[in-house]
Task: structure prediction
Amino acid sequence: MNTFINSVPRSWRERKYKYRLIGGICKKCNATFYPYRGSCPYCGSDDIEEVNLPKKGRLISYTIIYSPPSEFRLKQPYIVGLIELEDGTRIIAQITDVDVNEVKDGIEVEAVFRRYREQGADGIIEYGIKFRPISD
Amino acid sequence: MRRVYVCGIGATPIGEHWELSLRDLMVLAAKKALEDSTLTKRDIEAVYIGNMSSGILQGQEHLGSLFATWFGIPGVSAQKCEAACASGGVAFHQAFLAVASGMYDVVVAMGVEKMSDGNTYDVTSALIMADDQEYVAFTGSSFVGLNALIYRRYMEKFNVKHEDIAMFAVHDHKYAVNNPLAQYRKAVTLETVLNSPIVADPLRLFECAPIGDGAAVVILCSEEVAKKYKSDRLVEVIASSVATDILSLHNRKDIVTLNATKLAMNKALKMSKLDLKDIDIVELHDAFTILGVIHLEDMGFAEKGKGWMLVKDGEIEKDGKIPTNLMGGLKARGHPVGATGIYEVIDVVTQLRGEGGRNQVDDAEIGLAQNVGGVGGTVTINLFRRL
Result:
């Protein structure tokens, strides 16, 4: 069960940036960030362009969630990681296709499209980007 | 700006108050503070209530009017202030501004949270609302999980052992024993902390602030009102600052520094014209052990990567260099989220008045209370001086 109001449009309006790794690049300070937004969080410039971010990166920190929010009840344990993409842009996402006992800092990962959460028993299913280890 | 004084404090003990509602807690704390101040209800001109999650946890908003109605002071200016776990701190800041500006002479700064009615999953959902719902909560991270990301990065970056950070919980419990308002009035060992269940790896249950209910009230007044008190009952607010940082960790360049702490600290020191070394006691926002360590560094008491050494070397003890969390901190005094910022102020004022009992620091004159919202998205620093 989710603890807040079900809404199709709330999820739908974010589809562009949740389904793809589209970030922003600041034309003034050159910073990149995910997801895209109209103003730079670092220098405040409004001169921002969309940029396709690299789909590969490295895990720079992770946690294993044993006590989840209601929306993820019964999915535990699962891994949430802080990923640094090849261009230095960072993103928080679930790490998938790896056992919780085998995840390690520094592993190379790649983006995949996966299921995240449901808006209750009758609501829509929300999808987004997760990352999986790159196998040799 | 006018001078601002604390002339009354009052709070409910923090705990699982099955018999008390959100409104009961607010009324109880306000009564205690008013009694402490010797003022009457009719003296109150404005009320600022820090609260994070009354809507999702109690189905209740509009706390200003609710409190005014149930306390029997309809007509006053009253409103809720929200900044996640820093809600109490920002409510205090608003109350400070209301007196400093000359607008009001007697103002209530309150914090309240009623958490224990919800199951842990639902409370966990409520707490992650402190971060970006669509790009962080969406991933299934809990609020504990975000702090676990910081923890692992910190240990790796500075090559620090888990047990050297987990010590912070042992410290908090030791001092909560003597605090009648504390949720857990018992000491724990490092073994107990390290062997408690994992909430979000590497964070263990006994390294995380608990879920609890509580309300706390501080009454602020102008110099004119303060004149009627003996000076040993008064504490002056010598600085009050609020700063923000980028909301989510993935958009920050450095996740082991909370930049808003540095900004708020600089503002507060400037406002009070004090140096760091003038500060005698600190109440910091250690919702998780790792945060206690990081706050000591970001406030300037230790170099980056070395905050844990202050704990290990006994420097944050009652007789140490910088006595910290002397009433139990968030871990053991408790952390009823939106109320915490006000409990911290009460802990500092109690010490400055010399009413800290067995935890009393000798000759404490200047005290600091730091309140943090989210993973440092908001930080408030308030500084106090004994008269």
